[in-house]
Structure formats: C-alpha cells, structure tokens
Amino acid sequence: MSIIVNLDVMMAKRKMSLNELSVKVDLTLSNLSILKTGKAKAIRFSTLEAICKVLNCQPGDILEYTNDGE
C-alpha cells in the first residue's frame, strides 16, 4: 500500500508555481518540494488545511491511497 501525493496536479490545475504556493502557505520551498515529490513521511493537518485553503480543494484531491497488491 502507498499514498500518492497529487500536489503537482492540483498546482497545475490552479496554475500556481511551487514558489507562489510556498509563500501563500508559509512553508519552506524545500519542505513543500519534499511533499510534492512524495518523499514526505508525514504531513501536519494544519499544513494540509493551509494547502487545501490556498488551492481551493479537498484533502482527497491531494492525497490518494493505492493498494500495491499486498
């Protein structure tokens, strides 16, 4: 099982750059990049809430669960 982060998809739909999102969410560019690439091990609800507010989306639009056949 794994969690897929679709942050780049939502950013593209909203025509927003990583730098712009970083400023609006008040998160460092490096931390946002780690999240975007799917390398993050965890995310705070407050961070997820801020991202959803800025991108005008739901958490399920950003995070997706897949069963890798386990």
Report what the structure shows.
This protein is mostly helical and about 70 residues long. Helices cover about 55% and strands about 10% of the residues. The protein has five helices and two strands; from the N terminus they run βαααααβ. A two-stranded antiparallel sheet has the order 1-2. The protein is globular. The protein starts with a strand and ends with a strand.
List keywords for this structure.
54% helix, mainly alpha, single chain, two-stranded antiparallel ribbon, 434 Repressor (Amino-terminal Domain), 70 residues
Concise overview:
This protein is mostly helical and 70 residues long. The chain contains five helices and two strands; from the N terminus they run E-H-H-H-H-H-E. The longest helix is centred in the C-terminal third of the chain and has 11 residues, at 45-55.
